[in-house]
Amino acid sequence: MSDEQVRVGTEGDGERVEMPVVQLLTGRGFITGKSGSGKSNTASVVVEELLEAGYPVLIVDTDGEYYGLKEEYELLHAGADEECDIQVGPEHAEKVAELALEQNVPTILDVSGYLDEAAANDLLRETARHLFAKEKKLKKPFLLVVEEVHEYIPEGGGMDETGRMLIKIGKRGRKHGLGIVGISQRPADVKKDFITQANWLVWHRLTWDNDTKVVGRIVGGEYGERVAELDAGEAFLQTDWTDGDVRRVRFKRKRTFDAGATPGLDDFERPELKSVSDGLVGDLASITADQQREQERVAELERELAQRDRRIDQLERELESARDVSEAASRMADALSGSGSMPPAQATLSEATMDEELERLRSENTALEAEIEELHGRLADPSPEAEPGQSSGSVEDADDDTEAAGIAAEIEAASRRSLCSEAQTWAVIEALAERDGATATEVGRAVSAPFQHVWTLLMELRECSCVERRSDGIYTLSPTARELVRESADPLSV
């Protein structure tokens, strides 16, 4: 690949203009020009030539212009619209990066259809982050194409985490094999550090003074004056590998359907488009299904929590009423006997029963609130970055130590969501491990912990499948949790 070249156009004398593949894939590029000048065609030509040579890319499409590539090439078209192969959100970012980088699937990340700009921004940031993290290990030549780059890395501040991630790729991606090309019709609005550090630049026609001044400062004064005279499809090409030499180039027309062309009055016939295999789309769809199930679980828990809150309010009102009756009965008994009699036994029992019920409901609500908070956290941060040197991992890939650590982590998380301390939690685990089964009351006695504390812990352990409850109310450790205790004398050391 080091000597491989792709043809992108011709100079005025008809001489072929070629660009080295390795520089396109791993370098930093910048393509600019006003609307209609040919900048999107140039970007498509670069992408087509790389795809033709067998190299995958990931395109961040902000205007839905690139789906025409599917006329010739099998690409994954992911976005929010129904016309995409799969509808994706930030929770799919790691899988999108994996398919593009590790499975060589050319990908269009179409962010044009998102009504929620924050979701589109999160999707781009997380996808770029996973690309960068995976490339540190793979070091595989790969190009990230970003349309309307000024929206993410603007000149004059206002850059968010997405912009900082793209800048990071620009500065440090090359040594890992990850290149980036930014495309914009307003170079004056793009962060100058990105432009000045690019090792290949394409300047199509620009007419606004602020934009032509950028050309003058970076390319040279004469080009700042001449850039407004370029015809559509023409551009000044400046590359590091030709010692900064500037050539006037007419870029060739792209081969595929121009999805970004301005609609006209002529009859429009959309070409037959290609898509990637159903299996790859299915991988992403399964993530969507998991996300939907978690959202439904949150809604279910919130409904249950609201119902219990209403029950608590009702019990508190009944308890207050019972106390008023008890106090009145006590005063009457005092008046009749002339002594400080105790309240009637029935009233006392009623109050105690309602107090116990209130305590139980409050404990259950605490556990429900903790579970809802955890689910909201997973929905907000669906794909935490793996530690360096680790993949995101799957159950099939985990060894025994990793599985044991995962079970221990589940138990500790359940402990934090319950009313039990960490010491009480592991005492409960050990008590269950020593028995074939026990009720919550029996476990509480064995570990000298309050019933409500033990009950909330057992409920949390059931949620993470570490504990099972039989129909007769007997709790038992799951086989995996029992194995964890059996193999380790000290569970905290797992």
Report on the structure:
Belongs to the HerA family. Pfam families: DUF87 (PF01935). Residues 23-77 form the Helicase HerA central domain. By secondary structure, this protein is an alpha/beta fold. The chain has three domains: 5-268, Rossmann fold (3-Layer(aba) Sandwich), CATH 3.40.50; 277-386; 395-494, Winged helix-like DNA-binding domain superfamily/Winged helix DNA-binding domain (Arc Repressor Mutant, subunit A, Orthogonal Bundle), CATH 1.10.10.10. The chain contains 15 helices and 14 strands. The strands form two sheets. A twelve-stranded mixed β-sheet has the order 2-1-12-11-10-3-9-8-4-7-5-6. Strands 13-14 form a two-stranded antiparallel ribbon.
Task: Itemize the secondary structure elements and their pairings.
Blueprint: E1 5-11, E2 16-20, H1 21-26, E3 28-32, H2 39-52, E4 57-61, E5 76-79, E6 86-87, H3 93-101, E7 107-110, H4 117-138, E8 142-146, H5 161-172, E9 178-184, H6 192-196, E10 200-203, H7 209-218, H8 221-226, E11 234-239, E12 246-251, H9 278-337, H10 345-380, H11 400-417, H12 422-433, H13 440-447, H14 451-463, E13 467-469, E14 475-477, H15 479-487
Parallel strand pairs: 3-9, 3-10, 4-7, 4-8, 5-6, 5-7, 8-9
Antiparallel strand pairs: 1-2, 1-12, 10-11, 11-12, 13-14
